[in-house]
Amino acid sequence: MNDYPNQEYHSVSKKNTETPGTAGQIPSADNSIQIDNTIHTGSISHDDGHTSQTGNISHADGHTSQTGSASHTGDNPTQTSQPWVFTPAAPAAPQPNSLSEEEKEKRIRHFRLFSMTSVIYALFYTFCLYKNASGITYPFFTGGTLFCFFLSLKKLGISAKKDSVFYVIAILLLGISTFCTDNSYIISMNKAGIFVLFFVLMIHNFYRDSQWNFSKYMKSIFQTIFGSIGVIGRPISDFSLSMKSRKEEKENKQTYGQYIFIGILISIPLLFVVMMLLCSADMVFASIVNDIFSSLQIPQNFFSICWTIIFSFLASYCILAYLVKKTMKEEVADKRTGEPVLAITVTSILSVIYLLFCAVQIIYLFTGSMELPTGYSYAAYAREGFFQLLFICLLNLCIVLICLGRFKEHKALKAIMTTISLCTYIMIASSALRMLMYIKSYDLTFLRVFVLWSLAVIFLLMTGVLTNIYKERFPLFKYSMVVVTVFYIAFSFSHPDYFIAKYNISQILDNPDEYHDALYLTYYLSADAAPAILNEETLLQLLDTSSEEGGITENGQISSRIAMNSWMGEYALRKSIHIELIEEKGTKVRTFNLSRFIANQYITQFWERLDNPAEEIS
Q: DSSP 3-state assignment of 82?
């Protein structure tokens, strides 16, 4: 029986003719046993015409023995005595996808450190956000997410960087803003801001990013997102490694858990088949089984809740697993290898056009000293083109960033980029002036307010880019992050819908004979606008304006007929239904929102002032 598996066996044959009594030995001149130092191959000849190749033998002293040959004759073969020895086989080459022991230990440790944390976080995430886009739990969600992240850093032995405070405060403020508003645009942008800020916070603490430029940071954010998706199978593989490790640690202990689990898995399909057969065999038994299972109703949201838990678990575990690998390079390669003549050619042509356009803006728009084309009024001229100019401003910002990041430094290129930047300032002013004149004629909307905010932010971003043209070490990404974050937080807390409603209502009261877009106030404004629309003093003025009969009855009540036929009544009805639907989707406590709560108070007061509240229901 072979006691040495995976070994190769070879025979040693004599170097010369064998003498009696020395079978298997090679005699030397002094009759001592000697081993040849050369390596040869030999063969065994058979009388049927074929030969058998023999192998080599390696000795501990580094020598090798020559193999010999023997011949078989008939049924009584005569062959030399060949003692059998073995040569250890070469170790198996590692598989390309196999993990080293060190990597296995890291994964096992990662799973044991963060698997339970990810499970708890997934349950917390589901409780806070499931069917609850802007409730009171949102600030707790942002706070809990930050707590889990810094706890994970502590487990990994990584110290949080001091300037992480800015990101932490910004994320918490956006979470509070989400709870304080009902505007769907603000809520969506808040979530996008939290998402980006949180990824920047994680990357900032895992990598040395002090020298990173704008493009490097943007690339690292996308790389982290898609890299986390790429390791989506890590929880399963890490769990498998952890179980194998535990099995090896407890190999001397008798455990039955895995056998019970396997037994349950096997019994499920078997039980299903048996139950079907028994139910078809006996109708009474089938009726009993049907009654049992009909009482066990799966909740309507069971599968969507499970999906939310699975998604949040995978996200929290895989993002951290990818970041721990630290696969992204911290060094920033200088990619300014492009020929500046190319950039100079393109940007110089643009700069000439921009200079001509800016001259037209100064002469026609800002001063109004030149005569416009026939049939073209100054108001019509001023009220168009703001969206196109906004796009051009963004395009100029990108062009200058590309020139800074991809082309070699050149004085002429710097001068042209400066020209484009200065022209962009004039375009920003032109677009803002056009928008203000448009608002004066057609009132405010959320998009128009957002355009003005965007122009202000672009102005500051272009200032940072202009600084970066002449100061290479200027931290453009951090500057941009601070500017956009601070300005956006201020915008999100400002409740733009309230100011839109207040301004538009003032325009209606001041100019009742002119056309005003009441449909926008009714159908497009959120609950944030309720204090401006359903304010008692303002409401009475609007009702008097909207009806010749007046909105107030003799006993001081609001006429139900007039109120419910007005756009204010329609707004109140729509918002009350909106609030009820949100509370039905989730529990009332989780979905509590400050803006909706305040709006509900104004709506309740509005119903109470009606002379016949029953008409509101009909």
A: coil
Q: What are phi and psi of 45, to 5 degrees?
A: -95, 135
Q: Which helix (H) or strand (E) holds 122?
A: helix 101-129
Burial of 495 (0-12, 13-18, 19+ CB in 10 A): buried
Q: What is the pLDDT of residue 546?
A: 62
pTM comes to 0.74
Token duo for residue 80: 């030399």
Contact at 8 Å (CB) between 48 and 77?
no
Q: What is the pLDDT of residue 412?
A: 93
DSSP calls for 171-234? HHHHHHHHHH---HHHHHHHHHHHHHHHHHHHHHHHS--TT--HHHHHHHHHHHHHHHHHTTTH
Residue 65 CA to residue 33 CA, distance in Å, equals: 12
Cβ neighbours of 148 (radius 10 Å): 19
CA distance 102 to 456: 53
Q: In this predicted structure, what is the pLDDT of residue 556?
A: 60
Query: What does residue 334 show for φ and ψ, rounded to 5 degrees?
Result: -80, 105
Residue with tokens 């505007």: 183
Spatial neighbors of 437 by CB under 8 A, at least 6 apart, are: 379, 382, 383
Which amino acid type is present at position 371?
A: E
Calpha distance 179→595 (Å, rounded): 8
d(Cα 222, Cα 225) in Å, to the nearest integer?
A: 5
Gyration radius of the chain's alpha carbons:
41
Structure tokens given for 269: 């399909």
Rounded distance between C-alpha atoms, residue 451 and residue 390, angstroms: 8
Flag residues of the chain having pLDDT under 50.
1-82, 86, 616-618
- Calpha distance 180→202 (Å, rounded): 27
Q: Which residues pair with 33 in a beta bridge?
A: 27
Contact 144, 561 (CB under 8 A): no
Determine the pLDDT at residue 248.
73
**Which of 394, 364, 393, 367 lies closest to 381 in space, CA to CA?**
364
Q: What pLDDT is stored for residue 154 in this prediction?
A: 93
What is the predicted pLDDT for the residue at 445?
92
Residue pair 190/492 in contact (Cβ under 8 Å)? The answer is yes
